[in-house]
Design a protein that fits this description.
- Strands 1, 4, 5, 6, 8, 9, 10, 11 and 12 form a 9-stranded mixed sheet that branches. The chain has a two-stranded antiparallel sheet with strand order 2-3. The protein has a two-stranded antiparallel sheet with strand order 7-13.
- 36% of the residues lie in helices and 27% in strands.
- By secondary structure, it is of the alpha/beta class.
- The chain starts with a strand and ends with a helix.
- 40% of the residues are buried.
- The protein is globular and about 45 Å long.
Length: 236
């Protein structure tokens, strides 16, 4: 399985609040977010890792290039108009991939829950994909995921449709049928991951919602402290 990371954003909200560095290199409890993801991916038997960064991230490129990993690390340097386009570029660089796990660089979660998520996906080979979801909502524009008693996703919306809403956590495990939908989304001029997720449902793909107790993104300076507290709690 290819494990892929979107690290091509500009981190504008962090920079507007005074953060001077690159977002993927933000340290959470002393560890860069990009390094944390790579470490967790390796612990879950990644066969290869791919990262897309934007063309102005020279310091990040240098950091990634000096890493010594036990699996191939592919670094794609391209500035893209959206996260969906970044995902497309990652797949274009690995045309033979049959399974992929994708995350954005600032997604913070419990590594043990992530290991369960990966194992569940690998054991359910009839699924086209599995999306990480959580009932923890701390996002300016959450994407709601509705699913049945078997955890199969029925719809993805901008507003809650159930009394116990779950939202997308920004982590995706996909197989070939779902991977092929990325190119279709680009051909349709879609430009957001949420629109790609909706397209998968509209295309009749079988997608499972896998629940995490908490997934959070680091978008603001205050989120760094929140992420550190969260990881300290689960690791204690």
């Amino acid at each position: 399985m290819l494990f892929a990371i979107i690290a091509a954003g500009e981190g504008s909200r962090l920079s507007n609040e005074g953060y001077m560095g690159l977002k993927p290199m933000v340290k959470i409890n002393g560890e860069m977010m990009i390094d944390r993801l790579i470490r967790i991916f390796l612990a879950n038997k990644a066969s290869s890792i791919a990262v897309i960064i934007n063309e102005s991230s020279l310091e990040l490129a240098a950091h990634l290039q000096q890493l010594s990993l036990p699996v191939p690390l592919q670094i794609i340097t391209k500035t893209t108009p959206s996260s969906l386009h970044s995902f497309h570029e990652l797949l274009q660089a690995s045309p033979e991939v049959k399974e992929v796990c994708l995350s954005t660089t600032d997604t913070i979660f419990d590594p043990e829950e992530f290991a369960g998520y990966i194992q569940d996906f690998r054991e359910n080979d009839q699924l086209d994909g599995s999306l990480a979801v959580t009932t923890f909502i701390d996002d300016e524009s959450p994407l709601y995921v509705d699913f049945d008693e078997k955890s199969l996703i029925s719809q993805i919306t901008d507003a809650p449709v159930s009394f116990s809403p779950s939202v997308s956590g920004g982590i995706y495990c996909l197989r070939q049928s779902a991977i092929g939908t990325v190119a279709t989304a680009i051909d349709k001029n879609l430009n957001r991951m949420r629109n790609f997720q909706r397209l998968m449902i509209e295309s009749g793909l079988q997608l499972k919602a896998y629940n995490f107790s908490k997934i959070m993104d680091v978008d603001h300076l205050s989120d760094i402290t929140k992420a550190e507290q969260f990881l300290t709690e689960i690791e204690s």
